[in-house]
């Protein structure tokens, strides 16, 4: 039901991890994501530690879900000196192509403990339903 839109994104993520570069608005970094089905919802869980909820932007256009977030440096005093900086800063983005069987009008998003959870309901027409099998006697009653 979900499709990756860029097969090279994982290679970019690995290269950025080794090079230590953060993303920019023109070339955002990837954010780690898990996707799974939970009952009648598809769930996306994205790691965004250190990002404030106000810095997260979620859009859906047709069947393309776009999530962008920005992690800024911690504001410190001018006298301080950074000794070690390993946490990536900058812009993070993820695009997910959604199937037609998902209800894009009722997407919900929650952010807790550095994890953004996006829940996308399955449409009614895509849910499994029972089909009644009629026998020969049932058909005669309907036609008579």
Overall body shape:
elongated
Please tally the β strands and state the result. 9
Which residues form runs of ≥5 with pLDDT under 50? none
* Residue share in helix: 10-25%
Total of DSSP H or I helical runs spanning 4+ residues? 2
Q: Report the mean per-residue pLDDT as an integer.
A: 80
Q: Major beta sheet, specifics?
A: 5 strands, mixed
Using the CA coordinates, give the radius of gyration: 22 Å
Order of helices and strands: EHEEEEEEEEH
Report the β-strand fraction as a percent range.
Answer: 35-45%
Quickly give the structural class.
mainly beta
Distance between the termini: 44 Å
What does this structure look like?
Belongs to the small heat shock protein (HSP20) family. InterPro entries: A-crystallin/Hsp20_dom, HSP20-like_chaperone, Small_HSP. Pfam families: HSP20. This is Hsp20/alpha crystallin family protein. The chain is 13% helix and 37% strand. The protein has 144 residues and is mainly β. It is elongated, with a radius of gyration of 22 Å. The mean pLDDT is 80.
Which helices and strands, and how do they pair?
Elements: E1 2-4, H1 9-19, E2 29-30, E3 33-38, E4 41-47, E5 56-61, E6 64-71, E7 90-98, E8 108-112, E9 115-121, H2 136-143
Parallel strand pairs: 2-7
Antiparallel strand pairs: 1-7, 3-4, 4-9, 5-6, 6-7, 8-9
Name the descriptors:
144 residues
What's a quick, concise take on this entry?
The protein is mainly beta and 144 residues long. Helices cover 13% and strands 37% of the residues. It is built from two helices and nine strands; from the N terminus they run βαββββββββα.
């Amino acid at each position: 039901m979900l499709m990756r839109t860029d097969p090279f994104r994982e290679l970019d993520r690995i290269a950025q991890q080794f090079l230590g570069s953060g993303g920019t608005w023109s070339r955002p970094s990837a954010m780690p994501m898990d996707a799974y089905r939970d009952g009648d919802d598809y769930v996306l869980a994205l790691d965004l530690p250190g990002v404030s909820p106000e810095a997260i932007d979620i859009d859906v256009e047709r069947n393309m879900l776009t999530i962008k977030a920005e992690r800024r440096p911690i504001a410190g005093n001018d006298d301080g000196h950074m000794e070690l900086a390993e946490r990536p800063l900058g812009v993070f983005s993820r695009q997910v192509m959604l199937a037609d069987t998902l209800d894009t009008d009722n997407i919900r998003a929650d952010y807790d403990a550095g994890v953004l959870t996006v829940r996308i309901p399955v449409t009614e027409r895509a849910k499994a339903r029972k089909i009644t099998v009629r026998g020969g006697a049932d058909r005669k009653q309907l036609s008579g």
